[in-house]
Specification:
Layout: E1 2-11, E2 14-24, E3 29-33, H1 40-47, E4 55-60, E5 63-64, H2 70-75, E6 78-80, H3 93-98, H4 109-114, H5 117-136, H6 152-164, E7 170-174, H7 182-199, E8 202-206, H8 210-216, E9 219-224, E10 227-232, H9 234-238, H10 241-247, H11 252-261
Pfam families: ABC_tran, BCA_ABC_TP_C
Protein name: ABC transporter ATP-binding protein
GO molecular function: ATP binding; ATP hydrolysis activity; L-isoleucine transmembrane transporter activity; L-phenylalanine transmembrane transporter activity; L-valine transmembrane transporter activity
């Protein structure tokens, strides 16, 4: 589904991502891990068109997307969440989710203001789809609540719902369990698994919680200082000396620490 080919991104004299390649197959959950500053969020920004790579190419379903604008990439079926929650906190949960359908509808401002039939039908469709997604993420009954009044974990769910409502083929999740307690982390893992099984969505997941990633993902890629140092199945990743060194340091206690996270 996704083929990233030797992508490099520089900011002046700083190379944030260096020659990274990654293949993602339809239906996979792929983890992207690495220490702080490894280039993970920059990599997501490249995939979604926020940054244009200096070198390399990105193919989505065989078509190049690395020169396209973010809204065109989104229309092709790639959606994302962000490391910091970005909700319209004064608006309802339902309105926040409906925003995710903005690029998928055809009616313009005047059609909506004049109450034309097409605009009404689209509004009904968007509302129905949004309610379906809210049920999927476990927020049925919260649609009328103000988004900012929800718990931190549920705000994360709203953000994921907004990303899912446009029926993306590929969902990019940037640290979806950051700041959560153990119970919320377990529930989020179950939700991400359900997104794949019930919605048929392929997922790439950035996360610092190695144990959660190992238990959830089919495959894990590891970035360190902007370079990919490993790409393998979870069990091989947690035993990889280069990964252990990148995370905790080169000693026996480091290895014990990484394995304990699993």
């Amino acid at each position: 589904m996704l083929s990233v080919q030797k992508v490099t991104k520089r900011f002046g004299g700083l190379t944030a991502v260096q020659g990274v390649s990654l293949e993602v197959n339809k239906g996979e959950i792929v983890g992207l891990i690495g220490p702080n500053g490894a280039g993970k969020s920059t990599f997501f920004n490249i995939l979604t068109g926020i940054y244009k790579p200096n070198e390399g190419a990105i193919l989505f379903e065989g078509k190049p997307i690395h020169t396209q604008k973010p809204f065109r990439i989104a229309k092709q079926g790639i959606s994302r969440t962000f490391q910091n929650i970005r909700l319209l906190k004064e608006e309802s949960v339902l309105e926040n989710v409906k925003v995710g359908m903005f690029g998928q509808t055809r009616s313009g401002l005047w059609s909506a203001l004049l109450g034309l039939t097409q605009a009404k039908k689209e509004e009904e469709m968007v509302t129905e789809k949004s309610m379906q997604i809210l049920e999927l993420v476990g927020l049925k009954g919260y649609e009328g609540e103000q988004a900012g009044s929800l718990s931190y974990g549920n705000q994360r769910r709203v953000e994921i719902a907004r990303a899912l409502v446009s029926n993306p083929k590929l969902l990019l999740l940037d640290e979806p369990i950051a700041g959560m307690n153990a119970h919320e982390i377990e529930e989020m893992g179950e939700l991400i698994s359900a997104i794949r099984t019930k919605n048929g969505t392929t997922v790439i997941l950035i996360e610092h919680n190695v144990g959660m990633v190992v238990g959830l993902c089919d495959r894990i890629a590891v970035l360190d200082h902007g370079e990919k140092i490993a790409d393998d199945k979870p069990d091989a990743i947690i035993a990889n000396p280069a990964v252990i060194e990148a995370y905790i340091g080169k000693d026996e206690e480091a290895e014990v620490g990484l394995l304990a996270a699993h």
